[in-house]
Amino acid sequence: MARGGVNAPVHPAAAKVAVAPLGDPAAWDGYVAVHPSATPFHSRAWCEAIARATGHGCHPLAARDASGAIVGLLPLHHIRSPLFGQALVASGFAVDGGLLANSDTAAETLAGAAVTLAGTLRAPSVELRGGVLPGGPGWQREDGVYAGFARDLADDDEAELLAIPRKQRAEVRKALASNLTVTVGTDAKERRDHYRVYAESVRNLGTPVFPKTLFDAVLDVFGEDADILTVRHAETPVASVLSLYWRGTVMPYWGGGTFAARGLRANELMYYALMNHARAKGCSRFDFGRSKVGSGPWSYKKNWGFEPQPLVYARWLAPGERPRDTNPNSTKYRLQVDLWKRLPLWAANRIGPLIARGLG
Questions:
Q1: b/e per residue, 12-29, with b = 16+ CB within 10 A?
Q2: Which residues form the BioF2-like acetyltransferase domain (predicted)?
Q3: What do you get for the CA distance between the two ends of the chain, in Å?
Q4: From the centroid of its chain, how far is CA 258?
Q5: What is the pTM of this model?
Q6: Degrees to nearest 5, angle at CA 268 with 244 and 203
Q7: How many structural domains is the chain composed of?
Q8: Could you tell me if residue 292 is inside a domain?
Q9: Strand positions, DSSP E, 170-278
Q10: C or N: which end of the chain has fewer Cβ atoms within 10 Å?
Q11: Is residue 172 part of a domain?
Q12: Are 203 and 127 in a shared domain?
């Protein structure tokens, strides 16, 4: 067993563990609420929202000790796609949500149960994003691909500005001096504007957009713990981000900008405004999310003064199987990415969700 995450108190009966599907909502919520390593992607809210919005089945597994107490959790989504194949993923459409356990025994037992479930569902692989890394037969570590970026927020708006490295701070100051405006909310207009901006942003990158139902479902289940911040130029939305709030940390999760955003420095204003908005909501930490090592977003986050922290994932493969390839930067998809960038936005928005639903 590798990597941290098994740091909740070990139950006296934890040595004897059994795994079964978790069908008790209150037990699920209760375990996530008290485990110190839990993320929003372990929550019932996230898992059920993904299932409802995408149609991918949710299969939460719970490890219980001899007394019946939950000592481990693994929320799995069965992702199926005619283009990308299928896999059990913890958690779907997430950057975390892997093994959550009170002991190595509970974590290894859950990992074994996930492999058994994969066989039952005829899924050739299991993908764990974050959490404890299992070490049993067939499991492989995947590192050197992604890095995470997070740091504490400063005490006030001015201190936050001064915490940004000089060159990037100058860009933020220029954005603050412009005629850009910022709105925050979750109403129908904010959701519509966010989706328009995000859809254009990912089309420009050559990747298909997720279905709007996914964003709506997450906003609906998270309530006050999720919102949209949008930067506008002459009332026109040019940059927008949907963020999650979890245990004092703000997580800008789905964000982007239009072609006009770069020249307007709208993204600079967006993230600085989000830092200040999050502090006003009681947050003390900013999680800039993950990026592929060496990519443009990876460099951009470093420019803000965030230090990359390596992320290590785990994957189990059935004998003779290869990992599914969902990386848009893969040489396999180079031609498709170039073609996608040239699609009219209306066409990309119509076709994209049908493809992106299978990325998981």
A1: eebeebebeebeeeebbe
A2: 169-301
A3: 26
A4: 22
A5: 0.91
A6: 70
A7: 2
A8: no
A9: 180-185, 226-233, 236-246, 249-257
A10: N
A11: yes
A12: no
Give the H/E segment covering residue 149: strand 139-152
Question: Which value, in Å, is the radius of gyration of the alpha carbons in the chain?
Answer: 21
CATH (domain of 48): 3.40.630.30
Q: 85-90 and 70-81: which strand pairing?
A: antiparallel
Query: Does residue 138 sit in the same domain as residue 33?
Result: yes
Same domain, 222 and 245: yes
**Is 75 in contact with 91 (CB distance < 8 Å)?**
yes
> 201 and 317 in one domain?
no
Q: Would you say 97 and 131 are in contact if contact means Cβ atoms under 8 Å apart?
A: yes
Name the residue range of residue 62's domain: 18-144+312-341
Looking at the structure, tell me whether residues 69 and 182 fall in a common domain: no
Q: Is residue 23 part of a domain?
A: yes
User: Is the Cα dihedral 36, 220, 266, 300 positive or negative?
Assistant: positive
Q: What is the pLDDT along the chain (360 residues), one digit of tens a residue?
A: 444 344 444 344 446 889 999 999 999 999 999 999 999 999 999 999 999 999 999 999 999 999 999 999 999 999 998 888 899 999 999 999 999 999 999 999 999 999 999 999 999 999 999 999 998 888 999 998 899 999 999 999 999 999 999 999 999 999 999 999 999 999 999 999 999 999 999 998 888 899 999 999 999 999 999 999 999 999 999 999 999 999 999 999 999 999 999 999 999 999 999 999 999 999 999 999 999 999 999 999 999 999 999 999 999 999 988 887 666 666 665 777 778 788 888 888 898 888 888 788
